[in-house]
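Incident log, structure service

09:12 report received: a user says their structure output differs between two submissions of the same chain.
09:20 pulled the input from the user's history:
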Amino acid sequence: MIENHTDDSLNDEKIIFQWKKWLLNKYIILTIVFLVWMFLFDNNSYFTHNALNKEINKLNDEKKYYTEKLTKDSISYKELKYNKDAREKYARENYFMKKNNEDIFIIVNENDTLK
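09:34 re-ran on a clean worker, output below:
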C-alpha cells in the first residue's frame, strides 16, 4: 500500500513536470503574450473595434434619419415653391399672417411652452 502511494506521487510529479514544461515553452509563452497584447492593448484591439462598430451603427442611424428628413423637406419645398395655396397655408400657420379683411385669434393654453 505504501508503494502505491509513492507511485501516485510520482505520477503526480510527472504530470506537474509535463505541465510546467509545456507552460514554460517559449513559443507558447510568446503566443499567449501576443494574444493578450492584441486582444487588450493594441490600437486594433477587440474593445476598440467594438466601440468603433457602435459609433458606425450610430452614424448609420443618423444618416438614415437625415436622409428621410431631407426627403420630407424636399417634398415640402417643392410643394411650397409650386403651390400658392400651400404657401398661404404655411404662412398663416407658422407666421400668423392674415388677409386684410380677417381677424386672427390665437388661443394659448397654460401648458404651452410659448410665453
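09:41 both user submissions now match this output. Likely a transient worker issue. Closing.
09:42 reviewer note: Residues 1-42 form one domain. The chain has two domains: 1-42, 48-115.
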